[in-house]
Design a protein that fits this description.
Elements (H helix, E strand, L loop, with lengths): L3 E9 H15 L2 E5 L1 H5 L3 H8 L5 E4 L2 H6 L2 H5 L3 E3 L8 H7 L1 E5 L2 H6 L6 E5 L7 E2 L3 H5 L6 E6 L2 H11 L5 E5 L13 E2 L3 H4 L3 E6 L2 E4 L13 E5 L10 E5 L2 E8 L4 E4 L9 E5 L5 H8 L3 H9 L2 E6 L2
Parallel strand pairs: 1-18, 2-3, 2-10, 3-4, 4-5, 5-6, 6-7, 6-8, 8-9, 9-10
Antiparallel strand pairs: 1-11, 11-17, 12-13, 13-16, 14-15, 14-17, 15-16
Helix pairs in contact: 11-12
Length: 310
């Protein structure tokens, strides 16, 4: 995907901080902010800087993500790399103040001096330690913290059964479990919950037409239609949008342009909102048959970023 210079991605850093503060107040535990994948396409450098005095720690997928934005020197906050270990040298982790997530005895022995964090498999079945091997791995030492990738409360309970009394810090709850107090444990790891309402993605009609029969590649039928300069090369798919504040649709998407259903009074230059106002990631996800995380990332990467901080 590449950004279109005709699409604006306006990122509200004040709303971002408010979201993080609300999570901290509601849960009363440490907040580990997920900024992997360039903070879901919103720009990890600016997002981390804005959150530095609000959250307790950051989580990236790879230590390279933390190094790329000089996360420690920029924020003074350490990071957990929640993906499989991608560096072999524990000194490299220590230099970046990044702690690796480990899942095997071999990794525990190799990265012992980097204060590794144990990732426990409670059902996701990827780069995590099977519960039956947790005790032997913890005997290797070095792990005072454990977590799991959980989307259900029963997975949190499996983590607790495996590590309670064996580590000093446990966390399991991402966005999907923030409404479950039993899942909060010693910290929470919000991702999407931090970014809700933060991004407003807009473009403008470049043309408007009174349709004269089937239009576009697929021969869609609509009384009126317009054209925007964003397409599937920019991550766009057919789905909801707002035209002049009115609920409408992106009808058909080409490589670098798309057709939008319009009304008789719409004109070139009028605003089309692809995300924001009354259209959120969940609504887009329902139409795209995708997850809200994917929808946010695709739309955040569709255009040129602008940051607002009141």
């Amino acid at each position: 995907m590449s950004p279109s210079r005709h699409v604006r991605v306006i990122i509200d850093l004040n709303r971002l901080r408010q979201n993080a503060q609300a999570i901290a107040r509601a849960t009363g535990v440490a907040v580990i902010a997920i900024i992997k994948a360039d903070a879901y396409g919103l720009g990890a450098e600016r997002i981390a800087t804005a959150l530095a005095d609000v959250v307790d720690q950051f989580a990236v997928f790879s230590p390279d993500e933390a190094k790329a934005i000089d996360l420690w020197n920029r924020t003074g906050k350490s990071a957990l790399a929640i993906g499989p270990p991608q560096w072999d040298d524990p000194a490299a982790y220590r230099a970046q103040h990044v702690r690796p997530a480990i899942s095997t005895i071999e990794q525990a022995r190799k990265l012992n001096s980097a204060s590794p964090v144990l990732c426990v498999d409670t059902g996701q079945q990827r780069f995590a330690c099977p519960i039956g091997q947790v005790e032997s791995l913890l005997r290797e030492g070095g792990c005072e913290e454990a977590f799991t990738h959980a989307s259900r409360l029963e997975q949190v309970l499996l983590l607790r059964a495996a590590v309670d009394g064996r580590v000093s810090r446990r966390h399991a709850a991402g966005t999907s479990l923030l409404d479950q107090p039993a899942a909060w444990l010693d910290a929470v790891r919000p991702g999407l919950a931090l970014y809700r309402g933060v991004a407003r993605v807009t473009t403008r009609l470049i043309e408007t037409h009174k349709s004269t029969g089937p239009a576009g590649y697929g021969g869609f039928i609509a009384p009126f239609h317009g054209v925007i300069l964003a397409g599937y090369s920019n991550g766009l798919r057919p789905g909801p949008c707002l035209v002049n504040g009115r609920l409408s649709r992106v009808i058909e998407v080409g490589m670098q342009s798309a057709f939008v259903e319009t009304a008789a009074h719409d004109r070139p230059g009028d605003e089309v909102i692809l995300l924001g106002e009354t259209i959120n990631e969940n609504q887009v996800a329902a139409e795209w048959n995708a997850g809200p995380h994917e929808c946010l990332l695709r739309l955040a990467c569709a255009g040129l970023r602008e940051y607002r901080d009141s």
